[in-house]
Amino acid sequence: MAQSSLQGDAVAAPLDRPCPICGGDECADMHTQRFVLPEDHPLRNGYKVVCCGRCGFVYASTPANQEDYDAFYAKFSKYEDNTTSTGSGVTPWDAERLEETAADLARFVPDRSARIVDIGCANGGLLAALKARGYENLCGVDPSPGCARYVRDQLGIEAYAGLLTRLPEEVGAVDAVLLSHVMEHVRELRPALEAVRAVMKPGAILYVEVPDATRYVEFLFAPFQDFNTEHINHFSPVSLANLLAVCGLEPIESGRRMLTTSPGMPYPAIYAVGVGSVTSSEGDGLTKDRTLKPAIEAYIAGSSRLLGAIDLKIQRALEQSGPILVWGAGQLAMKLLAETSLGQAEIAAFVDGNPIHHGKTIRGVPVLAPEQIRNMAHPILITSTLHEREIADRISQMGLSHRVLCLGAESDVRNSP
Question: Which DSSP string do the residues of 242-297 spell out, in sequence order?
């Protein structure tokens, strides 16, 4: 048999996870990402980012299995909090991008009585945008029972707690499946899309939207922001088309989007619309992705420089203070604890506005609600660059007199009541 045209450019490396698109097991190591996680976190404290030598896909070779990720999204979903996550449509910028997506979907599903299921619906922002356009037969599925309950009770839309690979029977046969910012989170990509195909009627469409990894470096606001515990697949237009092809889905349209995750924070995305085809393309029929690896290499270099600059700020902040309060128990904090001087700091408490974190401990230190630190006079270090201004404003609005240290600012911010 002739050697596949996709072979080459691989360095043998021990893998916890073969390529989730082509199944290749020879990959080049690109980066090792480490985290410090809360004590009861179901995922692992790090993984390797690798590039498949066969098809060129870049992904996390993580030792966590699909059951670990299912447990994480069922019990630790940040998407239950409308104020700190995207997907609910509560904020103006989130509502705008969901309305744009709904308008696009209307081109492919003009029948307002069509059965549409949004898998990974979070708090239902996209479903609400479709409902406002007159769609009557909507259904949401999310691993978080809290999200499913919110969609039912607050939006009046049918919704169930369930997993992508084990969809609730109530979903039934559907005319359209929506996977908006879901597939970057899924460990077992091909089984997931096979489960989706099983509920698609003949002629049904699949809409997939994911972050655009080829443009990560152009929108770099926090070091390694896209190498987090949740995003374990890094797609380009080529790799997204390859995924649909190996699952027997024919792309009928694809393109790029620009999202806003918070004021002044654009985020690049790509999408593809597919319909079922008779045959699937196996590894030898895929297009080798030659754009993704150099784009990720540039992103890693830029993130490393940014991480070094942040570490210097942390070092200077720690020289001027004793114990500190760390505001933020999210992705950046978990990286900074593992990779910078913050790991050696004396931390009195972590603070976070999302109730999902309250009551947890990180290295034995409690995570508190903002209201619980009024009598703690330690300086506050904000470990979020995406929401830094919002957090600083909240501290001021609360009347807290703590000294505030901002990683993304040129100087400290001092608040007074």
Answer: HHHHHTTEEEEEEEEEEEEEETTEEEEEEEEEEEE-SS---GGGSPP--SHHHHHH
* pLDDT digits 0-9 by tens, 65-120: 989 998 888 877 655 444 444 555 567 778 888 999 999 999 999 999 999 999 99
Residues 6+ apart with CB under 8 A from 249: 193, 197, 206, 274, 275, 276, 277
Quote the pTM value: 0.90
Instruction: Specify the domain boundaries for CATH 3.40.50.150 within the chain.
Output: 66-280
Question: 66-280: which CATH topology?
Answer: Rossmann fold (3.40.50)
Tokens coding 39: 């004590």
Residues in the chain, total: 417
CA–CA dist 136, 133 (Å, integer):
9
CA distance 258 to 84: 19
Measure the CA–CA gap between 38 and 40, rounded to whole angstroms: 6
- Cα 371 to the chain's mean position, in Å? 28
Conformational region of residue 273, where left means phi above 0, alpha means psi within -120 to 50, and beta covers everything else: beta
Task: Return the CATH number of the domain spanning residue range 321-414.
Answer: 3.40.50.720
Q: How far apart are CA 348 and CA 138, in angstroms?
A: 47
CB under 8 Å to 238, separation ≥6 — which residues?
A: 56, 287, 289, 291, 292
Give the whole-angstrom CA distance, residue 90 versus residue 396: 23
The CA distance from 341 to 195, in Å, is: 45
- Beta-bridge partner residues of 413: 404
